[in-house]
Amino acid sequence: MGPFILTFFIVMFILLMQFIWKYIDDFMGKGLDYWIIAELLFYASANLVSLALPLAVLLSSIMTFGNLAENYELVAMKSSGLSLIRIMLPLIVFILLLSGGAFYFNNVLSPLANLKFKSLLWDVTHTKPSLELKEGIFYNGIDGYSIRVSEKDQNSNRLYDVLIYQHEEKNPGNRRVIRAREGEMSKTPDGRYLKLKLIDGSSYDEMGNENDLSHPHIKSEFEEDDIILDLSGFEMQRTDEDLWKNHMKMMSMEQLKESIDSLQNTRQNRVDNFKRYLRGNVSLTDSTELKRDTVPILTFSELSTIEKRRVINVSINMTRNAKNYMNRTHKEMDNREEYIDKHKIEWHRKLTLSFACVVLFFVGAPLGAIIKKGGLGLPVVFSVIFFLVFHITSISGENMVESNVLSPFTGMWLSSMVLLPIAIFLTYKAAKDAALFDRDTYIRVLNRIRTIFRAKEGDAF
Description:
Layout: H1 2-22, H2 24-27, H3 34-70, H4 73-79, H5 84-125, E1 145-153, E2 158-166, E3 176-187, E4 193-206, E5 217-230, H6 253-281, H7 305-371, H8 378-402, H9 408-412, H10 414-431, H11 439-460
Antiparallel strand pairs: 1-2, 2-3, 3-4, 4-5
Helix pairs in contact: 1-3, 3-5, 3-7, 3-8, 5-7, 6-7, 7-8, 7-10, 8-10
């Protein structure tokens, strides 16, 4: 349990740091509360369990049985009549329980956490940066205003040489300009409004519509003037989580199954409509089957030149329209099939994590018994190698499913198909006490091969 918990939280910490560096620009300068960032990181960790849990199982199993083998405890237990599988039985039960918990987490808790994570991340990334006036630069973060200050006192919030352009939706442009020698900023107690107190200034206002050439121009001077700015747009607005609940990552297996059935029915109805269109517009009736007694029919050779051209033009237009419709329908069917495959990917993902924990345990435990090394040295090397195999095959399988190269079942279970024979092989070798990584064993085999070849060369001469 010690290596498992330690490894799990170390991997989670590393992956969370990667997430923070990815979105660090979206967090900075927005005045977010610490509890909002903590909540976002908590929900983000739900997406990282699928990477941290298999690696923790693999590394801790190698370390556990590597320590047992290195201290000759496996030898003592085997000498008392216990097989390797019997020794592994308590941990097998633990891994099965862990896999059941991983399935419950993937099917129930992970969709809920993904829903809250997606909604909160959207709110955070679309929150305006907090108000910050920089010297000599126009600030346009407040709707309807463009503010520039030449100098600012950081300690007293005192502003000097303030220039403000006020915009209106009904009269766009710089219709009103305010300039003051100095000013002072302060927020209301509830933080919703910013009070900008201007001293010794003047304002210029162009009244009327910009299309009216006779509109008046008003200029006024003031010793002191107050401007109230609304800061509600800087607060983080929470969106409705129901906007994201229909995404495939936010669904359980039951919901995914219902969504897949609905999408397949919609696709089949679209295919049926396409077939009806072809029968009605492309599959023309054979003229030899028509009754000539009721309808006079002329062959193409009997038509005049103008009628022939008219028939050819109509045929070309019908063919062109049918071709364009077929191409659009073909692309639409591909998009629908790709969307259905994404739902199937998420459905299989609920199971692959649980099964991966079992497979990687049967890779790590026999491997630790074979290499007979504990600690964080050689076990970490082997863990990284096998985890890269698992992760690369998982990503490759998922990409091949999205590229329509493999079926969703084959692509999502590709990593398990690759590692399962390795797990069976390592378990068999460890149960037979095979010296799989013993250098002397391979040297003896090479010497035996050399002896055989030398004997054959001697017989040949």
